[in-house]
Amino acid sequence: MNYADAPRPWGLYFQDSASPQMEALVELHNNIMFYLVIILFSVVWILGTIIVSHWIIKIANKFVSHGTMVELIWTVSPGLILIFIAFTSFKLLYLIDEVSDVNMTFYIEAHQWYWTYQYPDFLGSDDDFIGFDSYLVPETDLEQGALRMLDVDERVILPEVTHARFIVSSGDVIHSYACPALGIKADAYPGRLNQASTLVNRLGTFYGQCSEICGILHSSMPIVIQCITLEKFLIYLWEK
């Protein structure tokens, strides 16, 4: 099965979900859009009916200046709808922001214009934390099948079905670490720590980008997270 894990030209919908939180976000979007479409068509129908009736019967409702019941309905109904949307949105917002029972942690520091990653749970061959810098692959160095402005020289490797925490900071200006398929978006502030978490529920390679304008090369800060099996992940750590 082919998944949409990267941006596509003229794409209008979400990338395919690869984590429970992204599935919940898409479901919330679809539920809200269902009611918004009903409201849109209802308002258009009412306005269309009024306009057509005035064209055909030019004196229709000439002496009607107000209607208490109608005014009450169109005042209370939007309020109830907004309360419903707010409660469901806040519930999901707090659930996503809650980080507990994580299996592994990544430390990410943003720079103009690249990312620095560390695996603080694992030590490398030099008895220091496993870490690397991740840069955009120039267009002249792209291999066959690689994605322009999205591929990097060092990918984040993550084992499948693992609850991972991303601790994000910045070394210069404000950035934002975002990977749509995983439902991750965490702003990176200089001198402060922010966090996000995800549980990748399928294998694949997921693409994201810095989502905060951070300078002239803002578009040159792609993010690539590759989810592999636990066995391959252990081999990856051993080679590091």
- For the terminal residues, how far apart are their CA atoms? 31 Å
User: Which second-level CATH architecture of the largest domain applies?
Assistant: Sandwich
- Sheet with the most strands: spatial strand order: 3-2-1-5-8
Here the CATH topology of the largest domain equals Immunoglobulin-like
Order of helices and strands: HHEEEEEEEEEEH
Query: So what's the CATH class of the largest domain?
Result: Mainly Beta
CATH superfamily placement of the largest domain:
Cupredoxins -  blue copper proteins
Query: Unreliable runs, pLDDT <50, ≥5 residues?
Result: none
Transmembrane segments: 32-57, 69-96
Keywords: Copper, Electron transport, Membrane, Metal-binding, Mitochondrion, Mitochondrion inner membrane, Respiratory chain, Translocase, Transmembrane, Transmembrane helix, Transport
Domain Cytochrome oxidase subunit II copper A binding: 101-239
Organism: Arthonia susa
Topology:
Layout: H1 20-56, H2 68-97, E1 104-111, E2 114-123, E3 129-134, E4 156-159, E5 163-170, E6 175-179, E7 184-188, E8 194-199, E9 204-210, E10 222-228, H3 230-239
Helix pairs in contact: 1-2
Q: How would you describe this structure to a colleague?
A:
By secondary structure, this protein is of the alpha+beta class. It folds into two domains: 20-97; 104-239, Cupredoxins -  blue copper proteins (Immunoglobulin-like, Sandwich), CATH 2.60.40.420. The protein has three helices and ten strands; from the N terminus they run H-H-E-E-E-E-E-E-E-E-E-E-H. The strands form two sheets. The chain has a five-stranded mixed β-sheet, with no helix packed on it. Strands 4-10-9-6-7 form a five-stranded mixed β-sheet. A hairpin with a 5-residue loop joins strand 2 (114-123) and strand 3. Helix 1 (20-56) packs antiparallel against helix 2 (68-97). The chain is elongated. 20% of the residues are buried. Residues 101-239 form the Cytochrome oxidase subunit II copper A binding domain.
